[in-house]
Amino acid sequence: MLENQFELHPLLKRDCIELLDLKLSKLLLMNDCQYPWFILVPKRADITDVYQLDWQDQQQLLNESSALSEILMQVFMGKKMNVAAIGNVCPQLHLHHIVRYEDDAAWPKPVWGYQPTIAYSSEQLTELQEKLLPALKLVLKQEE
C-alpha cells in the first residue's frame, strides 16, 4: 500500500485538527477541549486493523504510540493514558491516545459519547500547540 494513496477518512477530517506528519502516522488532535485527546493514523491506504500493517509498520506504530503516550503523560500529568483502536464508527485504522484524570467528566468510564464535544478556541489551540509541539517534534522526529 503506497502512502500516496492514503487519504484521511472524512470523519477524522471533520472531528480533528492535523498537528504533525510522523514517519508512519499523521498526528491529530481531537477537537474536544475537555480531554487531551490525540490520534495516530498510519498513512497507509485501506488498513482497518493493526495486523494488516507489515511488520516494520507495526513496529513503527508501536514506537510512535509509546513515545506519544510518554510525552503526553509528562506534559499533561494525567492519572492514566488510554490507548485504543476501536474502529466501529470510523473504519480507517487510528489509535486514540487520551490523557485521563480522576476528576475528568467521564472518569472512570470511556470518553466516547459521554457528553457533547466542546471545540478548542483559537487561544486554547495555540496554547496547546506551544506547550506540546516542541517536545513532539524533538522526540517523534517530524518529517520534513
From TrEMBL:
Q: Which InterPro entries match?
A: HIT-like, HIT-like_sf, HIT_Hint
Taxonomic superkingdom: Bacteria
Specify one Pfam family: HIT
PROSITE patterns in the record: HIT_2 (PS51084)
| Species | Thalassotalea profundi
HIT domain segment(s):
39-107
This chain belongs to the protein called: Histidine triad (HIT) protein
